[in-house]
Amino acid sequence: MADESDSDKESRTEEGSDRRLQRAYDEGQVPIARDIVQVSALACGGVTLVAIAGGLRDSMIRLTADVANTLATQPFGMFRTRLTTPAMYLLFVMLAAATAAIVATFVQTRGGIWGNLAMPDPSRLFNLSKLTRIFSREFLTDMGMSLIKLAAVSYVMWSALSASFMTIGKLLLVPTEAQISGIFTPLAGAGIRVVTLLTIIAGIDFAVQRFRFREKMKMTKEELKREHKEDEGDPQMRGRRRRKQREMSKGRASFEVPRADALLVNPTHIAIAIRYRKKDGKAPRITAKGKGVLAEHMRDLAREHGIPIYQDIPLARMLFKRVKVGREIPADAYRAVAAILAFVYRITGRMPGAPRPSDDVGNNHSDVLGAR
């Protein structure tokens, strides 16, 4: 089985397609670095604890003093009342840590929530096939990383706190404020070192999880070809779609070209219908465009309805590539298009931006009027 798994992995040489990645996301298969979640919670909780340290210290001092003063007459009588304030401080720290953990998780899942994965599933508990995972390379790698992480954190904690152990006995002889500060200061220093170390480990874990996910999402060449065929569809259906698109484009051209002010050509491959009306906007619009057979059809329509045809190869290429049908021309083409329209208005006798007369201009203006 191991050999088959290895050979299967070796055959998956192609990166996962967008369709495969989206399907995995829809099923809740996303790479999550849990160490990042833990570090975020620990760091946010630590920062919050430092921010409220003054208030927490004062409440703990009052709690300790009140319990000590009333211990002989009323054992723990004031304990419940005085415990409320420090408990609220600690609850605030826990809420901050929980919020950071949730945010770190949502960032990695891109806000995705999969309710079906949160529901109890007995098959996850009683799936004997998963027991074989303890012999897998991935499981052994995770176990090794956990042992290394445990050893590293233990060493950092020991190196940070070992020097403070010898001074713990002296804290019994100092005031309560000094006792709390004497405990908090070395713990804060150790916490900073541990968070720094865990941040580095979390970065490594993040890279490992991303790498594993990419490897898991890889596809064989046959799978990629099959998916490509499914996306493209049947060749006959593709042909029908293309014919439908050509018919729709031809229908739009049949409607828009007779209403255009000029037809810009390149000279035979591209045709662009330009129309300007003051009520429609400040700049001329591209009302239709086409190439090949459609461009030839547009030229025939222009000749039939007396629409001036103007040849400008660089301008035609630029407008065809950059401007979508129905959009205004870009600012850097204003001068060139204005020159074309001015020429058209001059030979047709129309006012700039005015509607076209109902009668045809005449075939004497339907040939190519200019060339550049």
Describe the structure.
With 372 residues, this protein is mainly alpha-helical. The protein folds into two domains: 2-113 and 134-227, no CATH class; 245-365, name from scop, CATH 3.40.1690.10. Helix content is 64%, strand content 5%. It contains 14 helices and four strands. It has helices at residues 2-11, 18-26, 34-51, 53-70, 79-109, 115-118, 122-125, 137-165, 176-217, 221-232, 235-256, 293-305, 313-322, 334-348, and strands at 262-265, 270-275, 285-291, 309-311. A four-stranded mixed sheet has the order 3-2-1-4, sandwiched between helices. Helix 3 (34-51) packs antiparallel against helix 9, helix 4 (53-70) crosses helix 9 (176-217) and helix 11 packs parallel to helix 12. It is elongated, with a radius of gyration of 38 Å. Residues 358-368 have low confidence and may be disordered.
Which key features would you list for this structure?
372 residues; mainly alpha; name from scop; 2 domains; 4-stranded mixed beta sheet; 14 helices; 4 strands; elongated
Blueprint of the fold:
Elements: H1 2-11, H2 18-26, H3 34-51, H4 53-70, H5 79-109, H6 115-118, H7 122-125, H8 137-165, H9 176-217, H10 221-232, H11 235-256, E1 262-265, E2 270-275, E3 285-291, H12 293-305, E4 309-311, H13 313-322, H14 334-348
Parallel strand pairs: 1-4
Antiparallel strand pairs: 1-2, 2-3
Helix pairs in contact: 3-5, 3-9, 4-5, 4-9, 8-9, 11-12
Give the rounded overall mean pLDDT: 77
Count of individual domains: 2
Structural class: mainly alpha
Per DSSP, the total helix count is: 14
Going across the major beta sheet, what is the strand order? 3-2-1-4
How would a crystallographer describe the biggest sheet?
Answer: 4 strands, mixed
Principal-axis shape: elongated
Beginning-to-end CA distance, first to last residue: 71 Å
Topology, number of strands: 4
The stretches of 5 or more residues where confidence is low (pLDDT under 50) are 358-368
Strand content: 5-15%
Can you give the helix content as a percent range?
55-70%
Radius of gyration, whole Å: 38 Å
What series of H and E elements makes up the topology? Answer: HHHHHHHHHHHEEEHEHH
